């Protein structure tokens, strides 16, 4: 089954750029020599440089997790993890990309714990060889759109590295780099404290990175970076003209709004603005699936509480409970079946994929089991997700006449939507249920559809 994505565009730009950043940033001795040539002391630059490496890695992780063409499996749990910013520690390993994020968390920890230039270089070397190196030569398997025949593929990639760096490392109004929100399922740590000691190393590391992908047109931008004194500061206003005064830039935040003027790309037939319209993707089928096993193999299963497991099964959506004790007809299986059919029809009429998410909960007790069923009612705004679960609680069982019949009706309804062509009734031979109440032979369902995702759990009925 396929799942709708959070976005339809490729993240190849972020992946290719961050791979090249990390490869360059691995050369810590080269950066230190670059700094010394500018009469800069390197002792106070390490924490900021390391912070830049971590943010580069975040861009890489976010790109891999979101890109459609990366050959790693994904599911609805991943989508919610990415869109809702849930902590990866509270998420089960339901697909390969979640396992990738779990391993990425360990790499991020190693980068943050590095205490010397040599240690950081060794960590980045291992990272680049075993992980990011899988994409290191991907410029050979890229499709570009639109075609820009006047420039080479290498020029496009270098320009993309610059554009993506400026977009990723720009400073938000809150005074932190945009990249800190990339891969937000990973821990951010106490970054407020880190910012205090990271400014010089971060800004000079950014200058070092940009110069390696730049021509002489970036010189004015680099000069601005040398003057940085703060992460963020509000603009100063002229009392007479009420417009921003053209003063010497003192914060990283104030540099980036004018980057097109300060940091233009040369060439007669293309410019920096044209890069915003450029999209390129990995060629279909060209990424070797087996080569990417290293991204998820060996990921440890998390130790989750029963509550965490249940929330993850329900994709962290809110839950509305319909109690069977109030009305078994209006709140029970008849309501579940009607709601399921109606919601499926509604999705089809709105030209959306008729993909239905169903949950089944078994509640064990002494003589049998009670059952609850859930249906995810999806509702989306332009920027928000208002979806939630409707749970039909304790609406069937497998050890009584009417309760078992209701159970069979619910199960048959589910089977029709998960591609099963027959259903074996739940009533076992040998119980005290009469032959008239018991369905002994398999029920032939005829034409069915495989459009539902079924989640099954065994929990106590009071866990909701």
Keywords for this entry:
464 residues; alpha/beta; elongated; disordered N terminus
Helix content: 25-40%
Strand content: 5-15%
Query: Biggest β-sheet: count, sense, barrel?
Result: 5 strands, mixed
- Taking pLDDT < 50 over at least 5 consecutive residues as the criterion, the unreliable ranges are 1-9, 234-248, 260-274, 428-436
- SSE series: HHHHHHEHHHHHHEHEHEEEHEEE
Please tell me the overall pLDDT. Answer: 78
Number of discrete helical segments:
15
The Cα radius of gyration reads: 28 Å
| Number of beta strands | 9
Which strand order does the major sheet show? 3-6-5-4-9
Number of structural domains? 2
Query: How would you describe the shape?
Result: elongated
Walk me through the structure:
The chain is of the alpha/beta class. The protein has two domains: 12-295, no CATH class; 306-463, no CATH class. The chain contains 15 helices and nine strands. The strands form three sheets. A five-stranded mixed sheet has the order 3-6-5-4-9. Strands 1-2 form a two-stranded antiparallel ribbon. Strands 7-8 form a two-stranded antiparallel ribbon. Helix 1 (12-25) packs antiparallel against helix 3 (46-66), helix 8 runs antiparallel to helix 9 and helix 14 packs parallel to helix 15 (401-415). It starts with 11 loop residues before the first helix and ends in a 6-residue tail after the last strand.
